[in-house]
Amino acid sequence: GAGVSQSPRYKVAKRGQDVALRCDPISGHVSLFWYQQALGQGPEFLTYFQNEAQLDKSGLPSDRFFAERPEGSVSTLKIQRTQQEDSAVYLCASSKGAGLVNEQYFGPGTRLTVT
Amino acid sequence: AQSVTQLDSQVPVFEEAPVELRCNYSSSVSVYLFWYVQYPNQGLQLLLKYLSGSTLVKGINGFEAEFNKSQTSFHLRKPSVHISDTAEYFCAVRGGGSNYKLTFGKGTLLTVNP
Predict the structure, then answer these.
(1) Cα(B18)–Cα(B2) distance, integer angstroms
(2) How far is residue B35 from each of residues A15, A56, B104, measured CA to CA in Å?
(3) Which of the residues in chain A have pLDDT under 50?
(4) Which of A4, A40, A42 is facing B104, going by the closest CB pair?
(5) Which of A37, A60, A100, A111 is the best mutation test for B, with the most CBs of B within 10 A?
């Protein structure tokens, strides 16, 4: 079946521009996660949704970052007034639930480059 | 707080040689450990996981890992690697109050040479 998809796969933004990154989770998956992977680093947790509710946004690095999942399916990560330090791969993952027995399935990521 | 240390950033090996990728963790609560693989331009794929029970866990593609609580380690091993195993490998931990959240190490690039 279809896995997690993300679009665009690559995004180049000029410093100061706003960007929107989209994640389509696996159909029926209740939980959705966003991670940020800087060059040469492991992914770092940004935020977590259960259905449409954003239950944890402790990893969002600043108030320029905003995520939503209004209908409990597709999610969008928005970054306002992008800065060079925002350059990274943004990974989305989904799972049937948040429990340990539920594997998180990752999308291919969106590589954001801020120039 | 939890953290994961992957001791080697790069591991070059020859095809059919054995390999061990090292991972140590720190946590004040019970943890659950994972290894993920990332091929170029692809998302992370789960190799194996330790939740409870036997400390030796077997995963996909012939990989296995051993949970050692006294040494706080979860090293990944494969007795004979293939060219196709060339990829980035990440060790990760979940646990504590927010056990849905994965905390990753910095990754180890495994390069298998002919």
Answers:
(1) 30
(2) 35, 24, 9
(3) none
(4) A42
(5) A100
